[in-house]
């Protein structure tokens, strides 16, 4: 513990209090953390020690074509989408007083859909082309990604793959789950890196704000306002684990600098390209992050929220008021490959 404090103070001096210091090696045996104690939450990168995570993004979509009408068969449609991927992270350059370089390899990427067809016949979701691809991240001791340019490059590549090669009828984009790929990669350590004053640590009951993305099946850029709260610190066989609860609501704007996989004018194929003028009515949800304080790593994160929105039909003489409800779940799980 004394070694950790000494290193931490050194990082504070080196970075002028801008971020927290890293952890050097494993710490002493876990001990009980009193409610009044401030806990230092830092990411501990060890050279060439890989961490493998499974990410799952799934959503159930209910499309009610006329919510004001009496119940009738065929009026409500159910769809689902699911992205499951495994990514291996390896620290290739570790700077205990500054920025570390992490290499990420997309080991596997799978997409599953069910319900109403959302595009032309059979097609390969663009996000699956990420399988086998590699990108690097530069991360500081807080878990703050300070350089995501290589990840942004891969995201743009996925965006190109989402369009039909035949442009004789204009640029047509197939439905894709690129936003679901971005959500866990861009914000992997957000619960830790968003702490307002990281050098002061966090006490049980303390809250802090952040902003996360909102992946959807339609083309839109929306964000969630997040409130994190340190609920407790548990003693486990693997060390102390910080339990961080979170709540979500719709943000008024999207922060600049977030990745954009595609640009220009184009038409989205399928149901959600046919509809338009989406108006979000409500977004509400909760989440929980389990961060191993003594190991300096994210162990698990679960996010769940409900998104409700109205949509409009094109002027085709059809009178309807489509209402869409999306039940979204995002899960990050550390796979036990460290033995």
């Amino acid at each position: 513990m004394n070694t950790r404090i000494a290193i931490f103070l050194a990082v504070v001096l080196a970075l002028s209090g801008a971020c927290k210091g890293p952890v050097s090696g494993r710490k002493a045996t876990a001990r009980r953390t009193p409610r009044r104690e401030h806990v230092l939450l830092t990411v501990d990168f060890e050279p060439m020690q890989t961490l493998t995570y499974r990410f799952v993004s799934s959503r159930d979509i209910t499309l009610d074509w006329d919510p004001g009408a009496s119940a009738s068969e065929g009026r409500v449609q159910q769809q689902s989408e699911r992205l499951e991927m495994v990514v291996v992270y390896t620290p290739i350059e570790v700077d205990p007083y500054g920025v570390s370089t992490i290499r990420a390899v997309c080991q596997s990427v799978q997409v599953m859909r069910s319900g109403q067809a959302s595009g032309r016949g059979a097609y390969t979701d663009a996000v699956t082309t990420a399988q086998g691809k590699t990108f690097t991240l530069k991360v500081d001791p807080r878990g703050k990604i300070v350089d995501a340019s290589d990840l942004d490059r891969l995201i743009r590549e996925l965006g190109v793959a989402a369009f039909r090669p035949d442009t004789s009828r204009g640029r047509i984009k197939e439905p894709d789950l690129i936003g679901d790929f971005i959500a866990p990669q861009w914000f992997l350590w957000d619960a830790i890196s968003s702490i307002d004053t990281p050098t002061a640590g966090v006490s049980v009951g303390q809250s802090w704000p952040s902003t996360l993305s909102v992946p959807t099946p339609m083309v839109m850029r929306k964000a969630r306002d997040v409130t994190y709260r340190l609920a407790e610190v548990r003693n486990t066989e693997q060390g102390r684990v910080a339990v961080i609860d979170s709540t979500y609501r719709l943000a008024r704007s999207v922060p600049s600098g977030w990745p954009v996989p595609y640009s220009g004018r184009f038409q989205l194929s399928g149901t959600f390209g046919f509809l338009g003028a989406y108006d979000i009515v409500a977004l509400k949800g909760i989440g929980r992050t389990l961060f191993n304080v003594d190991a300096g790593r994210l162990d698990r994160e679960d996010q769940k929220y409900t998104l409700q929105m109205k949509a409009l039909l094109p002027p085709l003489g059809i009178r309807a008021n489509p209402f869409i409800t999306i039940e979204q779940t995002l899960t990050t799980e550390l796979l036990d490959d460290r033995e």
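Confidence is low (pLDDT under 50) at residues 1-33. The helical segments are 2-14, 149-161, 178-186, 190-193, 271-274.
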